[in-house]
Amino acid sequence: MKKHQLVYTITAQHDLDAIFDYIVDESGYASKADAFVLKLEKKCEEIARVPFHIGKNRSNLREDMRSLPFGNYVIFFRYIDDTVEIINILQGHRDIEGFYEKA
User: Fold this and answer.
1) Domains held by the chain: number
2) CA dist 54 to 9, 80, 91, 101, Å?
3) Which residues, in sequence order, are CB contacts of 3 under 8 Å at separation 6+?
4) Which of 37, 49, 62, 52 is nearest to 6 (CA)?
5) Could you tell me the pLDDT band of residue 18, with boundaries at 50, 70 and 90?
6) How distant, in Å, are the alpha carbons of 21, 57, 85, 96 from that of 4?
7) How does strand 56-57 pair with strand 65-70?
8) Which domain holds residue 97?
9) 13: closest CA among 32, 33, 35, 40?
10) CATH number of the domain where residue 55 is located
11) How many CB atoms lie within 10 A of CB 32?
């Protein structure tokens, strides 16, 4: 089974940091935040393990971009040869189209 290499953009890394900070602020527990971020990262690893392309085509937002929901978040990624690049991880209730129009 083919496994894709997994990479995170700087913005995706910042998204993970912001999600961690938000959960700590809301819950008061770094352990809760850490556990959730680890689950998000595991989901990204699952995306890379699948030997075929998955997720919803989001080329209306950015060329070659796909998305997959995870809880209240949406993971945005693209396939580049044998690599899965995580572009962003955003809250699902956000104005996603507006976010990418500004980017």
Assistant:
1) 1
2) 19, 13, 20, 24
3) 48, 49, 51
4) 49
5) very high
6) 29, 18, 10, 26
7) antiparallel
8) 5-102
9) 40
10) 3.30.2310.20
11) 14
pLDDT in tens, 53-71: 899 999 899 889 999 999 9
- pLDDT at position 21, please? 97
Residue of 44, 25, 27, 39 whose CA lies nearest to 83: 44
With residue 7 as reference, give the H or E element that holds it. strand 5-8
What DSSP assignment string belongs to 33-90? HHHHHHHHHHHHHHHHHSSS--SEE-TTTSTTEEEEEETTEEEEEEEETTEEEEEEEE
Longest CA–CA span in the chain (Å) reads: 41
**Is the distance from CB of 78 to CB of 66 less than 8 angstroms?**
yes
What is the share, in percent, of the chain residues with pLDDT greater than 70?
97
